Amino acid sequence: MDKDNLYITIKKMPESERPREKLLTYGVSSLSNTELLAIILSTGTRKTSAIDLATNILYSTQEGLRFLTDCTVEELCEIKGVGLAKASQIIAAVELGKRIALTSKTKNYKIRTPDDVNNLLMEEMRYLKKEHFNIILLNTKNEVIAVENISIGSLNASIVHPREVFVRAIKRNSSSIILVHNHPSGDPQPSREDISITKRLIEAGKLIGIEVLDHIIIGDNVYISLKERNMM
After folding, report:
1. Where are the alpha helices (DSSP H) in the chain?
2. What would the pLDDT profile of 46-100 be if each residue is shown by its tens digit?
3. More confident position, 113 or 153
4. What pairing do the DSSP bridges indicate for beta strands 176-182 and 211-218?
5. What pLDDT shows up at residue 159?
6. CA dist., res. 97 & res. 118, Å (int)
7. How many whole angstroms separate alpha carbon 65 and alpha carbon 13?
């Protein structure tokens, strides 16, 4: 019954304005953010079309599309008409987009300066609502092998353990690494814990033979390099 009502609603639209038909006829770039999200949702509810539901999601907060970059299943399920299945579809689609974008950017990408790290990860990390601790794995030419997440949550020694950091580097034959994490407040000033963890990982890296080149802290369109500040 839900599908029948939805299809009737969508079919009332001119064919040229239906999201799927527009995609097939004019290409994906012709679709608005709402139409793209409607295709991901696939269906709406008994009283709401997929397009209306997509609109409700995008305008559920002041952030608009940015809301989807770091929202949770729980936050999405608070929106009327969004259940676990639809929330999971959205989260999965956003994550896949992030991974594709990062894979494209990291191919043969060489890190020469902290600004190169900024260019690589700023847009992905500046809007995150929780602290994400990532490591950039580098080969002998300082080219990016991969960017891997170590932990999500407030930074402390219990969740950023040298074992978790260096096992990734060893598995990927990395010769050096760069530490990167964000401050959701937007202020990248390092805390005592940030500096302490950095020094701990540097010492562990020396024992293993994998150098920690830098620790970049990302704020809102601003960053700090601990190496440039002589804090490591």
Report:
1. 2-11, 19-26, 33-41, 50-58, 73-77, 84-106, 114-125, 162-171, 192-208
2. 888 889 999 999 999 888 888 898 888 999 999 999 999 999 999 999 989 888 8
3. 113
4. parallel
5. 67
6. 19
7. 24
Please give the Cα distance from 45 to 53 (Å, whole number).
8
Domain boundaries, the chain: 2-102, 110-225
E strand or H helix that includes residue 117: helix 114-125
Residue showing tokens 């594709």:
100
- Under a CB-based contact definition with an 8 Å cutoff, are residues 152 and 95 in contact? no
Give the H or E element holding residue 147: strand 144-152
Place of tokens 């700023």: 122
Q: Which CATH number, 3.10.580.10, 3.10.28.10, 2.60.120.260, 3.40.140.10, labels domain 110-225?
A: 3.40.140.10
* Confidence category of residue 104, pLDDT binned at 50, 70, 90: confident
> Could you tell me how many residues make up the chain?
232
pLDDT tens profile 10-35: 556 666 678 888 899 889 999 999 99
Which amino acid is it at 195?
Answer: I
**Which helix (H) or strand (E) segment is 134 a member of?**
strand 132-138
Q: Which two tokens stand for residue 48?
A: 């709401």
The label of the residue with tokens 């952030």 reads 63
- What pTM, to 2 d.p., does this model score? 0.70
